[in-house]
Design goal:
single chain; seven-stranded mixed beta sheet; six-stranded mixed beta sheet; binds 7-thionicotinamide-adenine-dinucleotide phosphate
Amino acid sequence: MITELAEKLFIDGAWKAGEGARIPVENPATGELLAHIAAAAPAEVDLAVAAARKAFKSWSRLAPVERSKALHRLGDAIFAEADAMARIMTLEQGKPLNEARGEILKLAEACHFYAEEAVRIHGEIVANTTTDIDSLVVREPIGVVGAITPWNYPAELVGWKLCAALAAGCTIVIKPAELTPFTALAIASMVERAKIPAGVVNIVTGSGSKVGQALVEHPGVDKIAFTGSSAVGLHIQRSCPTIKRLSLELGCNCPLIVTASADLDAAVKGAVRRSFRNMGQICIAINRIYVARPIADAFVGRLGEAADKLVIANGIDRPDADVGAMASAEPLNKTKEHLADALAKGAKLIAGGGAPEGDAFTRGHFFRPTVVAGCTHDMKVMTQETFGPLVGVMAFDGLDEAVELANDTPFGLASYVYAKDMDEIRYLASRLDYGNVAVNNVDAGIMNAPYGGRKQSGVGYEHGREGMLEYLNFKHVRIRYGEPKGR
Ligand code: TAP
């Protein structure tokens, strides 16, 4: 399937051989070349935006139930092709096949969720000072959306934007990450199969600084929906030459607090899953853990043992592996840098610390899940997003200290708590300055509830009804009525 998608753009419902320079896409588990993409030329970005503008006229006026049916068809098409799409994702991103398949199924779920939301767009009638006037507050789609997405969840992060935008009546031009473009192109072929009208969904590939920036600056794009690093999010906010709506889903340095009342087995299991799943390349990955001092040694010992037990492999060869290759050299190098920094400043290595041994790992971006303890806030692992398989642990003496440490960050996407004591849970959940707080579980984001960050972790929400509202404007229609004839 990758060969069929190579060097193509999806514009106005058709596949077009890209005119721009070729960019290689590699398999991060082997270093092998998978295929090339075409960097969309400025004229091709213009074509995609023009197609989305043209399609907006009819898509936004379509009865919501028709948009709903289209999204259901898309969900069905993706579900039917889950195996093939998962394979593409594993080949270009590195996560194990079973996990990639799970992500594709969640993309299908997002299509069906927003298909249902599409028929639930409603407004309000607001009281006026006189009774001959009605104020109708109606919701209308914003227009053309430019979606810019990262490489860690190449299907879901495209899908949340695409599905919510389409449900609201917007059309979209998507610029996927350079590292993982083929998953997005495979989604485009499902859009085609679902017979979504031409121009409603367009995909342009290429670099962020050129193709992504062209969307940010394009006068025909009404909204930018961006997921990625805080640095690029800030750059986008600053570089918008005209007023546009912006959603920015950015990075974090997520804390976990484990209190003395916690179920230790559950806390270790949760910490391992959310620190190392997808090799820690998750915006809501647990990067730092604060443990009540009386249980700190026991927790650290068990966390290290559990990390060492994780099965690491090429995700195509071992679909059920716990972790696969990292997506590129960049997050791998950052992980090594944060580890070296922690060790140089006195942290103790508990597990991992280097690449796994064996021929299978020599050419890919592999690193063992790594735990360091005895950490302090002088260390990068405790204060910056690592975006890799490294977690730092530190002991605390009182809940206020734990809250202060957890909130000692410019970020605010997700935080985690393991505790059994209800008073502790309430105290912590209400004081953690994060858009998401997960207690006694590590799934901070679910499809039905709003998911968004605070502070430098961004603005706006994805998931839930709120995720669709990001693509709608309010319109106030104030109507004065007269006396009816023949009353
Ligand atoms: P970035 O380097 O920020 O890239 C994200 C996207 O922006 C890519 O498509 C990139 O294109 C593009 N881009 C780069 N420069 C641009 C510019 N000047 N104008 C427009 N677009 C530009 O992030 P990443 O390394 O792919 O992803 C990791 C980051 O994403 C982490 O910080 C992580 O926390 C964050 N993230 C956040 C969330 C949520 S929901 N908050 C979810 C997942 C990831 P290229 O690929 O071509 O560079």
